[in-house]
Specification:
The structure is a single chain. By secondary structure, the chain is of the alpha+beta class. The chain has helices at about 20-30, 80-95, 100-110, 255-265, 270-275, 330-345, 355-360, 365-370, 375-385, 395-410, 415-435, 440-450, 455-485, 490, 505-525, 530-535, and strands at about 1-5, 40-70, 75-80, 125-140, 150, 160, 170, 180-185, 190, 200, 210-215, 220-225, 235-250, 280, 285, 290-310, 310-320, 325.
């Protein structure tokens, strides 16, 4: 990838070597897959180098966040109205379109992309270097610039009704409790000395005024406006940031149809991310209120004839990695005898050394057999299709992986059964030692003392899991040993670390170990609490 103002005068020499590179790669692919490398030759070929124009189109859009500040506290440029702010936010886009800092930030984001921007799906990018602040200072909308508000407690009067006398001015006498009399010194009754027999006295709270000073406004009838901090003004702050909406377009109108078909076969995005073409990004331009980054992908293609075992195979070669396109899938016929051998092996019960040798003559089958020892079918299929594009069809790639796995299961069928039996015995021994011996009782006592009695069922489950895993991996280990003995050296040499699949017996190990675990839990004395709960749910009497 390069940034420049113009394309080089001549393409790099490697663009014209793709046909030779494709022949060498084809020879490596076919070597050991029914042919030898020297049986592959490059015949007539013609290489063309194409320029694929494209452009990243960038539109800038404002994002506006608002806040309200107390008083006259403007930040940034002060404007008069919201409409002026919106107009400035939109109008500043033009300046940012030509801003070198914006261009640099956009280019940095494209440089982080695997394809340096070429073919990148539409995306949105926040711009750190494009930010503005505007303020509008206006009268406080609550107090209308008056700095104070009418007190809502007293209704602007400064006074509120007395709560003690309820605006009457008098209260019950606290000495005679409203009777008007009190006990006389010599016995009998006399008029109350406080209320003089009137039973009421002047309210001590309002001194008979029936109302009192409002504490909310301190009797002024007005309170300070908290919205503006008693300044009478509010500042409306507008923080304007910008984002870029970016979209790549391949200018297909300038690309011949036959080249477009090659581009679509490779994938527009893959052309850059997988290095099929040399990508040039030009200096940005301003067009129709948008920033345009022109791109040119320099893509080589070749029409070539390959001589394979005396037969001519016309093909299209594309890209700097010499990708083969539009070629007869010659490997299908070449490896078909090996796949037939795998199919026959899968029908055995006994493995035939002759069939194994016949299948393992093919490099792709050896790769599948060895790879399945430690990887999934999907992973091995993906690697095969990546290694043998175009010359091996999807049907034969899937058949190679499928029959390799089935053959492996058939070859090691007896060892898997032995592993299943041995693993089940190990699982049963673990369960018996846990439930019928003293180990579980000791563990339960220790967990109860530690306040973890609720976790006892989890400990029981862990014992089952250990038994299941022991069975599962015993199947795989014995199968792996058998395969090492039966498979030829050229497969074992390519074998990756790992174990072969457990097959159907691996699935059967799950219910078998669970059944043994439940049975021994039932015969344990005393029963685990969760067993008693199950029996109660099933209405089964138990001792």
């Amino acid at each position: 990838m390069a940034d420049s103002t113009e394309l080089p005068d001549q393409p790099d020499e490697r663009h014209f070597e793709i046909a030779q590179n494709a022949a060498e790669r084809l020879a490596r692919q076919l070597d050991g897959n029914g042919l030898k490398a020297e049986q592959v030759r490059l015949g007539r070929h013609e290489t063309l180098v194409h320029e694929l124009p494209g452009q990243m189109i960038v539109a800038l859009k404002p994002d506006i966040a608002t806040a309200e500040l107390k008083g006259k506290t403007p930040r940034g440029e002060v404007l008069r109205t919201r409409d002026e702010v919106m107009a400035r936010a939109e109008g500043d886009v033009e300046g940012y379109l030509a801003d070198a800092n914006v261009h640099a930030e956009l280019q940095q984001e494209m440089d982080r992309d695997a394809g340096r921007g070429f073919g990148k799906p539409d995306y949105r990018q926040a711009l750190q270097c494009a930010r503005n602040e505007f303020s509008i200072v206006d009268k406080c909308s609550r107090c209308n610039g008056e700095t104070t508000l009418d007190c809502n407690q007293c209704g602007h009067t400064g006074h509120v009704p007395c709560p003690q006398c309820n605006t009457v001015g008098t209260v019950q006498c606290p000495i005679c409790y409203g009777t008007g009399q009190q006990d006389a010194p010599g016995g009998g009754k006399m008029d109350c000395k406080r209320c003089f027999g009137k039973r009421l006295v002047t309210c001590p709270n309002c001194q008979g005024q029936r109302q009192m000073r409002c504490l909310n406004c301190n009797g002024l009838g007005q309170v300070n406006c908290v919205d503006c901090g008693r300044s009478g003004y509010a500042t409306h702050l507008f923080q304007v940031s910008y984002h870029a909406e970016c979209g790549f377009q391949l200018e297909r109108q300038f690309i011949p149809q036959e080249v477009q078909e090659v581009v679509d076969a490779l994938g527009v995005r893959n052309i850059a991310t997988e290095g099929h073409a040399e990508i040039f990004r030009m200096n940005p331009q301003i067009e129709n209120n948008r920033i345009v980054f022109p791109f040119t992908a320099v893509l080589p293609t070749a029409r070539a004839d390959f001589q394979v075992a005396g037969k001519t195979y016309p093909a299209t070669v594309a890209g700097l990695h010499s990708r083969l396109l539009e070629i007869e899938p010659m490997m299908d016929k070449l490896i078909k005898p090996g796949i037939n051998a795998l199919f026959k092996l899968s029908k055995g019960p006994m493995a035939s050394e002759a069939l194994i040798d016949a299948a393992c003559r093919y490099k792709v089958i050896r790769f599948a057999l060895s790879g399945l020892m430690g990887h999934s079918k999907r992973q091995i299929y993906a690697r095969i299709t990546k290694e043998y594009p175009a010359i091996l069809t999807e049907k034969y790639a899937k058949a190679t992986v499928q029959y390799s796995e089935v053959a492996m299961l058939a070859i090691a069928a007896a060892p898997r059964k032995r592993g299943f039996i041995i693993g089940a015995v190990i699982a049963g021994a673990l369960d018996a030692g846990w439930y019928l011996g003293p180990l579980r009782a000791q563990a339960v006592a220790a967990m109860t003392a530690a306040g973890k009695a609720a976790q006892v069922p989890a400990a029981d489950g862990a014992v089952w899991l250990a038994g299941f895993l022991a069975t599962f991996f015993t199947i795989k280990v014995l199968a792996g040993r058998a395969l090492k003995d039966l498979l030829p050296e050229n497969v074992k040499n390519e074998q990756k670390q790992g174990l072969p699949p457990a097959g159907a017996l691996g699935y059967w190990a799950l219910p078998l170990t669970a059944a043994v675990w439940l049975a021994l839990a039932f015969f344990a004395h005393p029963h685990p609490g969760w067993i008693d709960m199950i029996l109660d749910k099933l209405h089964i009497h138990h001792g």
